[in-house]
């Protein structure tokens, strides 16, 4: 396992981390027992970074992490997110009292005294601009309630605003082989500013596993069913913003990346880790088997310069124009 510095946070985190949305809810049937097995296996392999949020399963993911990392608090770094428990378009949701309440609730569920990385959870750009949320986060950092803070963004525009106007240590962005736009401007600027990059949705909600056909049916409780067209939240969070059928078609065209890399999943994760600006890639998981498969991406061969060029050309010519949502 390689470890990278997360911006100026002082945190050294594993190049492969894990997101915990799926073990909390909104991804269909899930099992706490399987979640614990997966978390344990990840930590045994050297993973020391997990991403969660107060709305994942109504705080359930945070509680699972508290139990799984008990006694390892100084070794395992947890990033959580806040703001979406309330109305993200209401300025009152961004008050100091409300943010402190969100933080104390997360600390209680995590059973920790400090949050390693506290992230604004996909707030609208106008709220980032016209509220005092960043001075409040600076204050919480000075008080030692949080070690560092970051912002989970939906668009490059939001990310660039954060880079130019705040003291954030990290940006969490949607980034995968079917969502390469951040490479153009956002990532170089983040490197210039010494801001870490956390790559979420690295498998495009499963499209890049190569396991789906166009007629695949997801469970009613799975966001890949109820948010496939953005009915519940930003459409970019589901399949990276691609219409499902188009995404399946595009993923088939990428089957070649699995050659000599074991599987399309491992190959897709390797591509993300190979991008210089990315501090950690955070795929989701629901069970031990998925964790083990994702861990194997650490050992597959790098992409050649020619392969990287081929994948870039594929994105800009075949994929980019089909992405929906603010990006």
TrEMBL record:
Residues 15-312 form the NADP-dependent oxidoreductase domain. It holds the Pfam family Aldo_ket_red. InterPro entries: AKR, AKR2_Oxidoreductase, NAD(P)_OxRdtase_dom_sf, NADP_OxRdtase_dom. SUPFAM superfamilies: NAD(P)-linked oxidoreductase (SSF51430). One of its GO terms (molecular function) is oxidoreductase activity. Signal peptide: none annotated. It comes from the Bacteria. This is Aryl-alcohol dehydrogenase-like predicted oxidoreductase. It comes from Alkalibacterium olivapovliticus.
């Amino acid at each position: 396992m390689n470890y990278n510095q997360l911006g100026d946070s002082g945190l050294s985190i594993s190049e492969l981390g894990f997101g915990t949305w799926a073990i909390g809810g909104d991804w269909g049937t899930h099992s706490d027992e399987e979640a614990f097995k997966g978390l344990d296996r990840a930590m045994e392999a050297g993973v020391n970074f997990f991403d969660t949020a107060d709305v994942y399963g109504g705080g359930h993911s945070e509680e699972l992490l508290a139990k799984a990392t008990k006694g390892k608090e100084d070794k395992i770094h947890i990033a959580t997110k806040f703001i979406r428990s309330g109305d993200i378009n209401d300025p009152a949701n961004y008050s100091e009292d409300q943010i402190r309440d969100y933080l104390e609730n997360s600390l209680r569920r995590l059973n920790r005294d400090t949050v390693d990385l506290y992230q604004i959870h996909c707030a609208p750009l106008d709220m980032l601009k016209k509220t005092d949320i960043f001075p409040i986060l600076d204050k919480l950092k000075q008080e030692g309630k949080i070690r560092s803070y970051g912002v989970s963004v939906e668009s490059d525009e939001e990310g660039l605003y954060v880079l130019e106007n705040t003291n954030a240590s990290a940006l969490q962005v949607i980034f995968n082989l079917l969502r390469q736009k951040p490479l153009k401007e956002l990532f170089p600027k983040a490197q210039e500013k010494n801001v870490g990059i956390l790559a979420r949705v690295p498998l495009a909600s499963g499209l890049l596993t190569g396991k789906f056909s166009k007629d695949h049916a997801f469970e009613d409780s799975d966001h890949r069913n109820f948010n496939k067209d953005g009915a519940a939240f930003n459409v970019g969070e589901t399949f990276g913003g691609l219409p499902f059928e188009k995404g399946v078609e595009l993923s088939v065209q990428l089957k070649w990346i699995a050659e000599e890399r074991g599987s399309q999943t491992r190959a897709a994760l390797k591509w993300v880790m190979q991008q210089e600006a990315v501090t950690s890639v955070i795929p989701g998981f629901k069970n031990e088997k998925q964790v083990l498969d994702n861990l194997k991406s650490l050992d597959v061969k790098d992409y050649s310069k020619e392969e990287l060029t081929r994948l870039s050309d594929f994105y800009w010519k075949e994929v980019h124009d089909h992405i929906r949502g603010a990006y």
